[in-house]
Hints:
The protein is an alpha/beta fold. Helices cover 39% and strands 12% of the residues. The strands form two sheets. The protein has a six-stranded parallel sheet, with helices on both faces. It has a three-stranded antiparallel sheet with strand order 5-4-6.
Amino acid sequence: PPHPFPPPLHTTLLFSLGYSFLFLIFAYFFCFKMSEDNGKSTVVDGTIFASNDMEGFVKYIKDNNCKNIIIMAGAGLSTSAGIPDFRSPDTGLYHNLQKYNLDDPTDVFSIEFFSENQFPFYTLAKELYPGSFHPTLSHYFVRLMDEKGVLLRHYTQNIDTLERVAGVDGDKIVEAHGSFANAHCIHPRCKKEMDANVVKEHVMNGTIPICPACSQPVKPDIVFFGEGLPERFFNLVQPDFSKADALIVIGTSLTVQPFCSLIASVGEDIPRLLINRDKVGTDPYMFRNHHFKFGSAGTRDVFFQGNCDDGCKQFATLMGWKEDLDRLIEEETTKLPPSKAVRIQEEVEERKKKEEGTGDSKEEAEEAEEE
């Protein structure tokens, strides 16, 4: 019930204004303290770069002694290894699934579709399975970033595990969409694990791995549409991105949620570099107004247009790491057997030689090139 003698209106207003003033003071000092704790630099005179290009970005990294850089990577990181990306016309993995007459090529990564038809996915899996391909210059660049002590975490959409093959510390990697390292039955009440080597045998033989306990299909622990991301992803995103002092995005279309929205998770004054063939991440609605603003006055965003290896090589060169990167690649690649891409190229050359020597049909040579 109301107080029998309510205070005068002017007294109520004074109390309200007093509380509001105290709240504003608290909020100001709290935010100031948070910005100090995060160690984030502030925008000065509307810009943070000496020049709005790779050189300006690298200069910022050096001048501010950045040690907590996050890398976000997509399929473009692995294309020079011979692994096709998903969406390129004529050569992308989705294009190669046309023989299955899918309503939508992304159905191959739908858990509902997989429960009914596993063949399209396992056809694709045979192309992607770890052990067939070698790391690219870009994968070794990620390892070099770690060895130089500037990599906070590497978030990847890729399931090819090439970062691990390149020798990147597993603790530094977040495989946001899972990997082939483990496999489980898809039945929600079973979830029995199957040995990854047994699953690989099935994949290479073109057969479907079936759970011995409940006779349901087994699937590698790759995140499908309709499934949740790994627990590790959610455990690390908030602390990592609040600590980041720079963000590098490499070879991704930034179209798959929630991964793509991570570009909006770093502080508003944290510099961001996109290394990609095309400008992406520029939709203000999709990225809650934290989209890339390339070319805008006072922007914190830099775009390097080109393939991933060229961008990573230029970054390493500007940092003064070119010789270290070259040496790392040379040392590591000599330890690996020929990759699938190299083997295919050797087979093409061999068949061409045979054609020239024996007069084999032109169709066979063309067949080899397609393969």
